Amino acid sequence: MFETVIAPSGTLLGLLQRGRGDGTLHALTAPRPEALAALDQCVLRDPRHDWQLENRSLYYARLYLDLNGGLDQIERHLFDVEDTLDTGDSRTGLALSVLGHLASYERRDALLLLRRYAAHGSNWAWALDELALRDDDAALAALAPRILARFPASAEGERELATAVRESFEPRPWRLWAEDPRPEVGARVRAAQEQGSFDRWQRQLRPAGPRPDWSVQAVLDWAQEGVALGAARQVPAARCLAAVAAAEDRPRIVAAAREGEEGARCAALRYLADSQDPQVFALVEAAAATGPHPVTEAAVDAFERMRNPAALAQARRWAPRTDELGAAAGRLLACRGTAADGPLVLGALREAVRTEGPDAPALWPLVDGVGRLGIACAAPVLRHIYRETASSHLRGGAARALAVTDPGFPASFAVECLWDCEESTREVAARHAETADARVVDQLRRLAADPAEEAEVQTAVRSRIGPDVATG
Hints:
Number of strands: 0
Order of helices and strands: HHHHHHHHHHHHHHHHHHHHHHHHHHHHH
Helix content: 55-70%
Radius of gyration: 26 Å
């Protein structure tokens, strides 16, 4: 898996990698070859921190349409020899999703490329899911022999086929193929469907986790066993403790939280925090001070999840600290504090940006918190995060906070947000962007008419389009 280098935020490539609305606006005014080269680079080397959380495919597909861009580079990427060496979703997933959106916009070259890749490419399952949403029955039926030929007619091949059927995101092709009269297609797919159902039934009969009749010690031992297996079990173990622990078990759990082995200690700390035990703050502080790191992390996380008044009071005492507990206290106050906690939350936000940069995961609750609390003097920091972060999800949070804290937002960032890659950010823009700008009116109309746009965005657009906009 490659590690994409994110270009500076002031460059065309950097804007497009981040999915910012200004990326589209700059690309449309840049020399077309330069814009297409930057766009191709983004699609072929996925710039997202987390592809499951951040959107880019519709954003890039719309830009291909606006630039009338060809698909030669995507085709070369999909069918490169590397496709047989690196079969992970991360290499081709974004390109396939972009092709799917382009097919929805009636780009037949994209549809044909998806069909060809489904028949011959390594990440065929993703391509098939895209086709399931957009292609006709006849074309999908024609793909069946190619897809099924990937699975040899052996016991192992049939098991792999059953797994592929069970794990597919879009069941339409498999349901269609199950009705195929050809025995090498219909009968085989039906058998795979039946095997998948049988496998699920067997897993339900053989649960591998803890049982209700376990003792407290058995749950702690199970949590510790997870350390050797590389599986963090403190959360399910804490739930199990809540089910089996009685009042007389508290000393054993407190002892485990104070000096138990790593897995058991993490589970005990989580349980005591969830049950709001009066001794938990001292235990969390000790764990944060003495470690090891997994225990420190579990202790801080357990504290940060607490929501009772005692936890808020403790957070106010810990927030001035400069260690992990102080940072967690700031995040807790951002989520649950009151307006009086504004200075502490703002201090935590500034410290996180200063020490960890504009992409720190710790910024997410802090950005939401300054918006929730309406901390107006946080606007300069929010603008910095908005411009610099490579996370489109975090940028969306900054936009929502700026809509509350920055009076200049409607005439500035809200305008470019109408072209943002995240639908939630476009929704914020649709509600706030200043319609005196002619670009805003045109883009609102485009979003309202685009069948690929999310319903929430179109609802927000319709709330803005009226007689004033129509004549503006």
